[in-house]
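> run fold DnaJ homolog subfamily C member 10
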Amino acid sequence: TSFITSNYRLKYIIITCILVGAVNLTDVSFYEILGVTKQASALDIRQAYKKLTLTRDTSMIYTGPTRHIHANTTTSHKQNNYLDEGFYFINFYSPFCPPCQNVADHWKKLAEMYKGVVKIGAVNCKYYNSFCYNSMRISSYPTLIFYP
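> ok
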């Protein structure tokens, strides 16, 4: 029954986050961060996201259940490998946060379950604190953000 409960909990989290579109506990929407209007098309949002990430270090994002990418991402070719098409669901966390530690295993299972459908990633805000606080305005953990 423990597996069923945790599986149900994981599915509930996924459905809730997808229905909401973006779970973000800050006052800034991802539209503002990307510099697009709420009426922007998915293509416009994707292009704005790519443009923004070309100025950021995206080596903190992982695309698999246990694989962290630590590559030099200075060229646009490597950047495009991270941001081709599709949806991104990013967990901004702190390694010292108990709720974040509870989410970690579920987050890895989520990445396995939705591999090829949604790109699941995580950002360690202790290590990338400038990006989390200044660029993304993350103020609490865990913060889960869904990017279309």
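The first helix runs from residue 2 to 20.
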